[in-house]
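ugh ok fine here u go
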Amino acid sequence: MFITNTEQIPGKTITAFHGVVSGSTVRAKHAGRDMLAGLKNIVGGELTAYTELLQESRDEAISRMKSQAKQMGANAIVNVRFSTSSVAAGAAEIYVYGTALSVE
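structure:
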């Protein structure tokens, strides 16, 4: 599956348009991660627990989007974009969307 944030894939020809596909996940903060983040706020540095949480969330959302595209018969997704939103105290949604295509 080709995935890109551009409108086309260099060297590939679009043979079919399948429509918009998306994937999302809602994740909550973990109490243990919050305690470690609080300590990092004192001494400084990257909040690796949150970095990992966000990467896992992006990966899950992309996986769901790819699954939807495959069900439609696509082998590529272009114009991919990410969005985040707060859905509850301590919980956020990662949403990814794009246009599913068949390319050769």
